[in-house]
């Protein structure tokens, strides 16, 4: 349901850069409000997209990275763990973490799930599981670009089509945007429209996953069922990030179509 950042070309100087110089570019800035590990995480992602770190290129160990960047080794290890979880790096048989290939898939239109379901003859619906104000977890903190002390309005619900469960969704917004998640009715985007929160840009990541026991218990889908996981981050015209949504849809109901235009 969104538009992604364009794919970047490979930097021709990347392979000739000294490893220490490449690591120094990832060093956190102590004057910024974000924790060091999140700065390192974000800088490496940007460097991978820009071609300064190549697919299958090995990263130094956590201790070596800590020495060059001036970070605490435990912060480096936590950042590397998050990078593995997000599939930006993977540990090879030799024990080294290596950069994984990334392909950005552009899509052309921003639309709501409810509108898409109606257009296909379904009656959309949802059932709230929880709507709370909470301390952000690490993923919410870096994706929403939150500063220390910020909280999030977190909402979980089951998505329905003709009363059939087709997926699970979790949305997080900064409380500066949504102070009380109970203010949201059946549509988060209707709340945004009513409060002049016009999304100007969004990025959506798509991956195939399997419904585990925890997910099955949470929303009633079958354990072992194939799902599509969509991670969406949305921003206003001024660049402020206002939404992080994780959606898990049944692959037999959700068909993702990409339209390419010159």
Describe the structure.
There is one protein chain. A hairpin with a 5-residue loop joins strand 7 and strand 8. This protein has 2 domains: 14-99, Arc Repressor Mutant, subunit A; 113-250, Chorismate lyase-like (Chorismate lyase). The protein contains 8 helices and 8 strands, in the order H-H-H-H-E-E-H-E-H-E-E-H-E-H-E-E. The protein is globular. It has 262 residues and is an alpha+beta fold. The strands form 2 sheets. Strands 3-4-5-8-7-6 form a 6-stranded antiparallel β-sheet. Strands 1-2 form a two-stranded antiparallel sheet. Mean pLDDT is 82; it is low at 1-17 and 103-107. 26% of the residues lie in helices and 26% in strands. Helix 2 packs across helix 4 (73-85) and helix 3 (62-69) packs across helix 4 (73-85).
Total number of beta strands: 8
- Level of helix content? 25-40%
Give the spatial strand order of the biggest sheet.
Answer: 3-4-5-8-7-6
What is the SS-derived class?
alpha+beta
Proportion of beta-strand residues: 25-35%
Short structural summary:
This protein is 26% helix and 26% strand. It is α+β, with helices and mostly antiparallel strands. A 6-stranded antiparallel β-sheet has the order 3-4-5-8-7-6.
């Amino acid at each position: 349901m969104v538009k992604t950042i364009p794919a970047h070309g490979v930097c021709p100087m990347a392979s000739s850069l000294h490893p220490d110089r490449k690591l120094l570019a990832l060093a956190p800035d102590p004057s910024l409000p974000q924790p060091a590990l999140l700065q390192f995480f974000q800088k490496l992602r940007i460097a991978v997209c820009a071609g300064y770190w190549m697919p299958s290129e090995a990263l130094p160990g956590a201790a070596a990275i800590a020495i060059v960047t001036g970070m605490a080794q435990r912060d480096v290890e936590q950042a590397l763990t998050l990078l593995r979880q997000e599939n930006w790096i993977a540990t090879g048989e030799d024990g080294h973490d290596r950069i994984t290939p990334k392909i950005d898939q552009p899509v052309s239109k921003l639309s709501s799930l409810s509108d898409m379901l109606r257009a296909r003859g379904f009656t959309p619906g949802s059932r709230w599981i929880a709507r709370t104000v909470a301390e952000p977890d690490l993923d919410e903190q870096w994706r929403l670009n939150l500063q220390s002390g910020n909280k999030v309005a977190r909402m979980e619900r089951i998505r329905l089509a003709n009363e059939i469960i087709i997926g699970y969704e979790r949305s997080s917004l900064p409380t500066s945007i949504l102070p009380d998640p109970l203010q949201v009715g059946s549509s988060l985007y209707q709340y945004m429209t009513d409060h002049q929160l016009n999304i100007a840009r969004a990025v959506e990541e798509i991956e195939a996953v399997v419904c585990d026991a925890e997910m099955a218990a949470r929303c009633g889908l079958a354990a072992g069922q194939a799902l599509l996981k969509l991670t969406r981050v949305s921003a206003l015209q001024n660049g402020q990030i206002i939404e992080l949504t994780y959606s898990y849809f049944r692959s037999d109901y959700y068909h993702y179509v990409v339209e390419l235009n010159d």
